[in-house]
What we know:
Strand content of chain B: 15-25%
Strand order of the largest sheet of chain A: 1-3-2-4-6-5-10-11-9-7-8
Oligomer: heterodimer
Largest interface: A-B, 44 and 30 residues
Radius of gyration of chain A: 21 Å
CATH topology of the domain at 16-266 and 415-485 in chain A: Amidase signature (AS) enzymes
Largest sheet of chain A: 11 strands, mixed
Distance between the termini of chain B: 34 Å
Amino acid sequence: MLLPSKLTDFTLADARDAVAGKKVSSTELTKAFSKAVTDAKPLNAFVTETPQKALEMAAASDARIAKGEARPLEGLPLAIKDLFCTKGVKTTAGSNILNNFIPPYESTVTQNLWDAGAVMLGKTNMDEFAMGSSNETSYYKPVLSPWRAKNSNAALVPGGSSGGSATAVSANLCLGATGTDTGGSIRQPAAVTGTVGLKPTYGRCSRWGTVAFASSLDQAGPMTRTVRDAAILLRHMASVDPKDSTSVDMPVPDYEATLEKGVKGLRVGIPKEYRIDGAPPEIDALWQKGADWLKAQGAEIVEVSLPHTKYALPAYYIVAPAEASSNLARYDGVRYGHRTQQPIHDITELYEKSRAEGFGAEVRRRILIGTYVLSAGYYDAYYSRAQKIRTLILQDFERAWEACDVLLTPATPGPAFALGEKSNDPVSMYLNDVFTVTVNLAGLPGLAVPAGLTADGLPLGLQIIGKAFDEATVLCAGRSIETAANFTAKPQHWWAA
Amino acid sequence: MSQHASKTIKGETGDWEIVIGMEVHAQVLSKAKLFSGASTEFGAEPNSHVSFVDAAMPGMLPVINRFCVEQAVKTGLGLKAKINNRSVFDRKNYFYPDLPQGYQISQFKDPIVGEGEILLDMKDGETIRVGMEPLHLGQDAGTSLHDQHPDYSFVDLNRSGTALMEIVSKPHMRSSEEAAAFLKKLRAIVRYLGTCDGNMDEGSMRADVNVSVCKAGGYEKFRETGSFKHLGTRCEIKNVNSMRFVQMAVEYEARRQVEIIEGGGTIKQETRLYDSKQNETRSMRSKEEAHDYRYFPDPDLLPLELEQAWVDRIKASLPELPDEKKARFIKDFGISAYDAGVLVGEKELADFYEEMARGVDAKAAANWLNNEVLGRLNRDGLGITQSPVSAAANNAIIRMMGDNTISGKLAKDLLDIVWSEGGDPVQIVEQRGMKQVTDTSAIEKAVDAVIAANPDKVEEIKAKPKLAGWFVGQVMKQTGGKANPAAVNAVLKARLNLPGEG
């Protein structure tokens, strides 16, 4: 195996083999990524960098490798979305209300990664409480995409909410990153930064120790530069967890082992309702190209119908805020997190001031929406109906599975947009999730794979949706797209001096 | 006072009926909390039994405690209710410092236990059937401490997350006595089952009382039609923490409502606080100020699915409950329904009685327990489990009384001796020569001596045969109380030519 000219150009799989084969030490690798992280400060991808901790973990990994005790991810530096609680390391969820919060516990997902030998570089920036599609709602300032349109220096958003992780992966600041996806927060930023993002089946990864946004939709997943890397990372993030009643006790297969199985004979559904008015022609063209690629590799393309798709986004913007309004009630300034320093006269004022200061505009908007839809007299009209729609959407998918094994759709309705372009127009911002939310509502796995560039040279992705707990097939189909698309574009390295 | 009178209040404009429903919060007897592994021990240092889940740290998730579910199922079975094999936990949302999550996980639309009933045995022998609403299993809040510092309130989360059963009756009680009897019976049932310790002082059982009044006849119309329009507007009285306070609070509140209505006012639906020091209720918040709890199913918990076989196993393992025990006591021991009702009111009392009554006259045992043992326990402020004289020792005393070894009078003296000094009653009777004298010649001698010493009384008794009791007393005195009273009577009758009995 040839070492890349720069250690930070490694894929996770190659770095793993190089470290295990003692061609490079974890310490060398970690130092290279830590320097890349430091050099990339203009991108603002990290809320907290942990270079010291990274070096300690790398040294421990090198010691294990020397003793022949290497674990599957031994010595591989990763970036962790700041929604995962990390013991002794500040965890903000992108919010001012947790700006001083240092968890005394480790989330199950990150613990699984450390148990597999991975190294933590730091905590990545994100939309506040994972509410956003551009990373502009972060209290810690927006993340910038490493990508720029041809002949333009305009700052672009990296998507969201896992925008810091997407930028870190896209700009080679880490080998891979964790993200979380409630309505598209892994797949949308992956698609617009030319990276791979997988939202696993609901229940595949434990939610324990991950700051909750919308409990019935939240799911952790990997963000990587290749489909293979996503397959490797998912295996070591996923687990059943007795501490999470909604995690599911299903064996976690070796996704990497089946990755190259190909798509011969695979029935790929094209849901007609995903052809939306006003979508850029580039999106439709890419979608058609994706179908052609799979067909060329032996897949059977079938048109399917998911008739309730148009209700998904409205239903999502009822269910997610409803759960969020309740999940975020614990941030009250009483036990931890931000507490107002203004004079207060009673407990209500303590709540009001602490929460008004602690939460940003988008979080406040969603708490208000969620509180409204759960209120007496509105519950049946909103929450109850949204849950019924959810059932109908799940039934749509179940019917589709009679005709196909996976679905192919665009990942986003367009490429990355400019910083500030949509931040004053919540509805237009919410539309970013139009192709991704259905998957969360139905609890299914969805994978975003980079598939091409716009005429302006910006990445676009395709999405593979699979049956519950059939991530293996999803990754296989994704790998076929990846091979055919041969997406090798990288952003210009404009941010470092 | 007749039973009927206690169900109505005389007002200026006629009779008013009292209608009462109870809402009891019973802490589940369990070592660990409902959704976390933290301990539920009472009286520990503040905030020493708090897990990250109980403190609602970010990313923490609830996991149901199987034992608490079993306890709720047991309680449901004890209330003769249907167990719902599928139930759902909901979030009840409100802000309070002792509620760290900002919501209480409870049940709302799909509770674990359906409708049941509780039977109340009243003093006059009437049995009242009180319908029960579905039982909800949920978590308790922590406690706020407002009296520790002039400028600060403190929060203790030890209780936060403890399993709680919300046990609510239908408005089927009609007097303060019935309300108190309800609480007593419910407490007995959960204590028999071992699902709640029923300790009202420590707050492991807390009662809210809903009281309304209506014109005479309104309640009966309500029961016929099920329509609440026949009842008055109710007020919920919180913080009623003993049987006695339940009675006092109902009496006060019913009178307050009648006075308002008869004074031309109307009752506002509101929550009121009972102040036991002043014996009054005060307004806490009106219906308009009531919270909108925004209930919705907790997405962190899957619906709770029970297997019928598991429920059946619990059912098969239920202990004998007060109603069944009462029926058995009446049947096996021949005691009155009222006595049986009193005895089964506390499991420990029933157990004590059963042991006491073994092999002796069960009715005599019941009387002995009611009149002698309970009287002395009351006097000394002791509970049945603290009785200085064991059930076995009482059984021995009753046995000796039954076979005429000792008289009733001596039996009481013997009880006092064992009460204060301890020891084996049989040995004490032997050692202190307390055996009853049935030897007729000794009794005749004593009778003759009394007759000889009191010729004036002998004359009197011929006119007034009731004076015989005086002679018996004198003879007993002479014999140190050891003479068999029946034998004394017989000898006296013969000597004085008194008419025979009947």
